[in-house]
Automatic annotation (TrEMBL):
Residues 25-139 form the Gfo/Idh/MocA-like oxidoreductase N-terminal domain. Pfam families: GFO_IDH_MocA (PF01408). InterPro entries: Gfo/Idh/MocA-like_OxRdtase_N, NAD(P)-bd_dom_sf. This is Gfo/Idh/MocA-like oxidoreductase N-terminal domain-containing protein. GO terms for molecular function: nucleotide binding. It comes from the Bacteria.
Amino acid sequence: MGILKLYERLTGYFSKGEIDVIKIGVVNIDTSHPKAFADYLTKYGRAQYTAVYNDGFRGDDEVESFMRSYALQKRCGSIEELADMVDIGFIQSCNWDKHLSQAMPFLKKGKPVFIDKPIAGNIKDCMELEKLYREGMVILGSSSVRYACEIDDFLSRTEEERGKIMNIYGTAGVDEFNYAIHIVEAISRLAGCNAVSSRFVGRSCQDGKMCETFFVEFQNGVTATYNTFHEVWMPFEIVIMTTKGTYQFRIDITKIYGALLDRICDYIESGRNMLASVPELTDSVKIMLASRISRENHGAVVRISDIPESDPGYDGYAFEKDYAKASAKIY
């Protein structure tokens, strides 16, 4: 790759003023995110969904309804065709095992791509995404909770004021990976570096419900505990203990999509990238892979560096099947 091309990819594709409305091409509308994102973007006018490629479980009726509701120009017959039409690709399939292959047509054409959470579900995909990042590809992501204003507010305080972070506690509901990745990404941002290890601590089962607890150690000495709660929605609660005090807040989920989308638009318009790097995003996935392996090995500490390439990870195809079966029409 030439030096000029690499510079363009690292610093942004467009100079401010060269583009009026950012054109987004979306791959699949499996989840509620495309609708929620489109509502926000329509309100503020910086970007819009322009075209769609769909081979997910949503039927033609829902795709056509989405297109009518948000004035999309075209339903493309391939991701390659979609990539030619737009400024950035949004990969919004619920099956994380498809994310990497769906992102490649955009990356091969020199287009940035946003991959919705979870960015990946196994160590091999994490490693390939990291390789593409090192080669200068622009891959943005992933959890909107990572960019929550409450986290911004806390991190905006000087260390002298708030103290050095020692321990972080976070909660999430619904499931152990697809939704729980939100709280792990939030914790990872607060910790400010990659993790060393994770381990399964234990579970509580009451009235047919299950809550599990995991303990994470980070390279800078920060530790964290996160709880998952299966099949029940729970708020994202965060407690941070520092050398000077204890801070607690609940993430306002009505504001998280805007926080993410504003950062994406800022990048496209100005080249200023305030989103997490790919290694930061994949580290959150690796924490959860290590947590799962630890649970399978009776709570043994699992180092991130020891996750084997043969580890199957979380099964995106099985999740897609179950998610589709449980999903009502939303478009």
